[in-house]
Amino acid sequence: MERFYLIVGHVSQLELLVPHGVRLVQLRIKDQPETEVRRQIARARDFCAVHGAQLVVNDYWQAALDLNCGFVHLGQEDMDSADFTALRRKGVRFGLSTHDETELERALSHGPDYVALGPVYETLLKQMKWAPQGLDRVRRWKQMVADTPLVAIGGLTIDRLPGVFAAGADSAAVVTDIQQAPDPEAQTRAWIKACAA
Q1: Is 141 helix (H, G, I), strand (E, B) or coil?
Q2: What is the pLDDT of residues 82-119, one digit of tens each?
Q3: 124 vs 88: CA distance, rounded Å
Q4: How far apart are alpha carbons 4 and 196 in whole angstroms?
Q5: Per-residue pLDDT band at 125 (split at 50, 70, 90)
Q6: Average pLDDT of the segment spanning 22-32
Q7: Across-strand partners of 98?
Q8: In degrees, to the nearest 5, what angle opens at C-alpha 119 toward C-alphas 136 and 92?
Q9: Residue 12: which of 49, 34, 44, 60 has the closest Cα?
């Protein structure tokens, strides 16, 4: 599992940042018509293929199947409608979001390629109904998921990275710290360097 996991909200951000050495990137599109969603996914798929990056499609598992994408990320609500059999049949890998032990148990029952835990810290990007999980929860999750890779997300910064990895996270998913940086490209390079250390 790549230690640096970039999350972007539009294919144009992906095209800006992936060439700096990103190897794992999630396209998380919100509030767009289906035709625009599919256009962005197809463009991101081709761009990532050229640059040797793994594209993860957030939420839109059916579009990912139709467009021959190899990886999806699903939240708890998405799991209700997702056809896991169809995903497995096509060899599509998937990661699942978790926030409490009930959700973790449910996620692990599907045999995911990774489990995400968040928000580890307070996050500015969206209103969360969960309080920050903290590093103790990261440690506990790592014990519970065993060999399944654990992705930490929510409020991560480069300064917090050593503690997150020391607590057992295999990968750090980053949204706000790059999106809101004065220079997102330089910040992406800094993250890649920090995750490689």
Answers
A1: helix
A2: 999 999 999 999 999 999 999 999 999 999 999 999 99
A3: 34
A4: 8
A5: low
A6: 97
A7: 117
A8: 105
A9: 44
Residue closest to 191 by CA, chosen among 47, 21, 19, 11: 21
- Which residue in the block uniquely carries the two structure tokens 């390629």? 113
Angle, helices 134-145 vs 101-109, to 10°: value is 30
| Alpha carbon 98 to chain centroid, angstroms | 12
Q: pLDDT tens across 148-186, in order?
A: 999 999 999 999 999 999 999 999 999 999 999 999 999
Provide the pLDDT for residue 132.
87
The amino acid at residue 87 is L
Is residue 136 helix, strand or coil? helix
The length of the chain in residues reads 197
